[in-house]
Amino acid sequence: MAARAGKIPVTDLNLFYADLIRHQPIICPFTSLFPKAFSIASRIRVSIYDATYLALAEQGGCPLLTEDVKLINAANGFSTVTLDSL
């Protein structure tokens, strides 16, 4: 999506893919996040899907990397970053 939007060059996609493979994400069981995610979803009025990612980032003590402007605007009080800010 970032390449289609012109935020990163298409020629850099292979570099991002290689970096992703090198630093594969840790698969985290998500059911333990539901209580916090439901609380977040109702408080900032976002989907449970988005709130689960916010809960996971908060639990991990790191910002949520997203290009979802609507979520960034709603996530006041949560740490979020975009590709542009990296």
Corresponding CATH superfamily of one domain: 5'-nuclease
What Rg do the Cα atoms give?
14 Å
Percent in helix = 40-55%
- The CATH topology of one domain, please? Rossmann fold
Describe the structure.
- This protein has helices at 13-22, 34-44, 48-60, 69-74; strands at residues 64-65, 80-81.
- The longest helix is centred in the middle third of the chain and has 13 residues, at 48-60.
- It has 4 helices and 2 strands; from the N terminus they run αααβαβ.
- Strands 1-2 form a two-stranded parallel sheet.
- Helix 2 packs across helix 3 (48-60).
- It is globular, with a radius of gyration of 14 Å.
- By secondary structure, it is mainly α.
- 47% of the residues lie in helices and 5% in strands.
- It has a domain at 30-85: 3-Layer(aba) Sandwich (Rossmann fold).
- Strand 1 (64-65), helix 4 (69-74) and strand 2 (80-81) form a beta-alpha-beta unit.
- The mean pLDDT is 92.
Structure at a glance:
This protein has four helices and two strands, in the order αααβαβ. With 86 residues, it is mainly α. It has a domain at 30-85: 5'-nuclease (Rossmann fold, 3-Layer(aba) Sandwich), CATH 3.40.50.
SSE blueprint:
Blueprint (H helix, E strand, L loop, with lengths): L12 H10 L11 H11 L3 H13 L3 E2 L3 H6 L5 E2 L5
Parallel strand pairs: 1-2
